[in-house]
Amino acid sequence: MPRPARQSSAPQEVLANIVTFVAPPAGPTGTPRFGAIGVFTATSLKAGGAALAALWTFPSILLSAFVVAWGAEAAQFLISQGLALAVLAWLQTLPEFAVEAVIAWDAGKDPARMHLAIANLTGAIRLLIGLGWPTVYLVTAFSSRRTRHRLPAIVLEREHAIEVMGLVLPLAYGFVVWLKGSLSVLDAVVLTALYLAYLAVLLRVPPHAEEALSDAPAVSRWAYGLGGKRRVVAIVGLFAAGGALLYVTAQPFLDSMLGIAAVLGVSDFVFVQWVAPFLSEFPETVSALYWARRADKAPMALMNLVSSNISQWTILAAMIPVIYGWSHAAAGGGFIAFRFDPAQELEIALTLAQSFVALLLLMGMKFAWWDATLLFALWLAQFLRPHWRVDVLVLYLLWSAVLLALASAGRRPLTAPRVFRGAVAAGRDRAAGSGNAAPRA
Prior knowledge:
4 strands; 73% helix; single chain
């Protein structure tokens, strides 16, 4: 497989632009030509002003993340935790969907920007797994260092097997999409159906028992404790208030971070693949780290990110061919499928390989320190050295082979399928039984 053209590396590029800004080019006499930065200063004033907006958008994003997280913690006593996290993921990834929609629409009019649509999708997925998952583990390990084992594994609960197995079919179909080299409207229909099937399974799972309510935050306990219709209104209100604040703040927040990136001179590709996903995924990262501070909530924190991964591989991917084809037709070129070039095929292959490794790790129903360390190390390698993409892909494939060999030998069994069947059966039996999963008025 030929190596793709080397893309600019974010850290080196940022540092180079900082140096250029601080130390302008020298004139003929060897003295700095400060007049040379006049154009830079004039064009960056707007970017600098946008960057200052971070002073209010950053706290607002934090507050919105906390509010919807409180809503999710209360909602898990009315509906299943997985369904509550799915709703939470939808609210939190609205900025990410908006960014992808804009890029896909532009790509339909300008084929030169097609690579950015795949860069944003694959970058968002790899960032969440390669940086988000390890960060959840790091926060959990640090927070529990005095009360538990020094490097404890995050052990998933039985119901979390549904989220783990929810990744299987989207990844399998993602492999089919990669093989045929295109995304079409038919693919969008299939991916959407897979996500709806995942939600249907979550609907079968009962909510948490009320005995666990004492561990919830004060706001969540207040909302649930209202009883009757007021309880539902309060929980929906938390989701609505957090979602509304996120909706109002998301664009100014992205603009402020874009202003910072412009001042540092980050390229379009680096911004779209890494900076934009990091910013658009910020709300879900905040809520996940909020839960990761408590060891008993660490599995929920990890599932918050897994739920987002499922929506990325299904709804976010499904959105690309629909908006791209619509834009292309609006420009007079007809409704066509989104076809991959060799560089995009490599990006998708790398993302599929990373996600498959992550799936195998969670199929053991736990997430250990070495899992987090290796995921982060391989993500960091491709971030610092983009031309290592093929090498990192090979390492992911080798890691997958090792995990499958360990599972075959019984040293690291893949228990999630069995636990999944048991969780669904138990939920069905409980729902058909005495109804003790229903909340008290």
